[in-house]
Amino acid sequence: xxxxxxxxxxxxVEVVIILAVLVGIALIFREAITDFxxxxxxxxxxxxxxxxxxRIS
Length: 57
Hints:
By secondary structure, the protein is mainly α. Helix content is 89%, strand content 0%. It has helices at 2-8, 10-28, 30-45, 48-56.
């Protein structure tokens, strides 16, 4: 009985730890992540062929 009750809370603890690690990584690499996303957005939105395709649709 004790083992079954003890294992029930492990899922929540694991999820909280994983979320904390992911948030920590995001904070550490925040500038690199935003630069990468900005390059993707600029490359997509500044491409005239993509803009023309959107206008045609």
